[in-house]
Specification:
mainly beta, Neuraminidase, binds calcium ion
Length: 288
Amino acid sequence: MSRRNFVVLLILAYGLVLTTCSRPSSRVYIVEVLNEFPHDPYAFTQGLVYAENDTLFESTGLYGRSSVRQVALQTGKVENIHKMDDSYFGEGLTLLNEKLYQVVWLKNIGFIYDRRTLSNIKNFTHQMKDGWGLATDGKILYGSDGTSILYEIDPHTFKLIKKHNVKYNGHRVIRLNELEYINGEVWANIWQTDCIARISAKDGTLLGWILLPNLRKKLIDEGFRDIDVLNGIAWDQENKRIFVTGKLWPKLFEIKLHLVRHRIPDGYIERHCLNLRDNTLSLKTDID
Ligand SMILES: [Ca+2]
């Protein structure tokens, strides 16, 4: 099948059939699976980072099951694990200067680990409302807390540098979750959707959407009924590989993006990637 036919097929499969549509205000992508790798089906993935040599670091959540782990990409084998205290619910994770930084749910504290041993070497406090996602461009930390705010954080003082309110067509893009910095952009899983937002790291502009419903559907079709939502993005800068997985997913996918060149139906992104009713409610509490 030609690439054009492949893209057309996927567009039809997603219901992106053209009717009376308006031009999208940002780019939309669908994904092709290039490779599948095993992933611990008991890992409630909250943070995912690619290091090098087919090695990933992963943070998992749930009380009593939270951890930071080193994982072999090819086998999914957990090569090293730090089990967190039962009082913590692990969230976002990133790797900066040989140290792993992790935030936790419903608390303003975070943990720093030695990446070689996964030993906890220091704690920190941050100024986000909550701890959801973390990423880095190699200089600063980017953070999310479940609102529409993308935070820039100083990795030495953990003070807030700047914050961006991410919007799409005037709507706040709430539930920014797991993050990854990729070539000047911060990619964000939107919690409880099959969508990843591509956000300008410079000014918080929403640059595009990646639609990935085919991944969760594929797992369900294969009989994996107990999976949770898409979550976890990792980027191999050297080999330009993109990896994604989900909470309790038995697989991790290497994906390739395809730009949707057709117009998409009005309201498609709002329905599938945003929760407008909740978004309206959040206007009272979100930070401008
Ligand atoms: Ca990530």
